[in-house]
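Justification of computing resources. Each target in the renewal requires a structure prediction run like the one illustrated here; the chain below, 133 residues long, is used simply to show the kind of job we budget for.
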Amino acid sequence: MILALALLVGVLFSVSLYLMMRRNLVKVLIGLIILSNAINLLIFTLGRLVRGRPPLIPMGQTALQPPYADPLPQALILTAIVISFGVTAFAITLMRQVYQTLGTSDLNQLRDTDIQPRYHPDHYHENDEVEGH
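Resulting structure tokens:
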């Protein structure tokens, strides 16, 4: 089981890095989402999958009796899920705003500093003639 999860984590990391090296901003965002899921699965795997009791100390004892489930990886994964949701929501909003402003999601075109937004006052085409000018 651990070997299968390790292979799955490797595949997810590879796919996410491949997508994050693409030119399209949407593919970069999908790669970021897959990378966060791969990290969550890695933390889950490193926490050692043990089928055990909840980590509660019984009455009259001073220590946990093994086997018990380790709550730390579960807490870390839950925190990481919440943080990755916030980062993803921000990235989607930022990507949408960039596309609306510049009209492209190609990263090579976004590096060009001469691009002006479509609604910028200095943006003028000869085909966009207005009566009275």
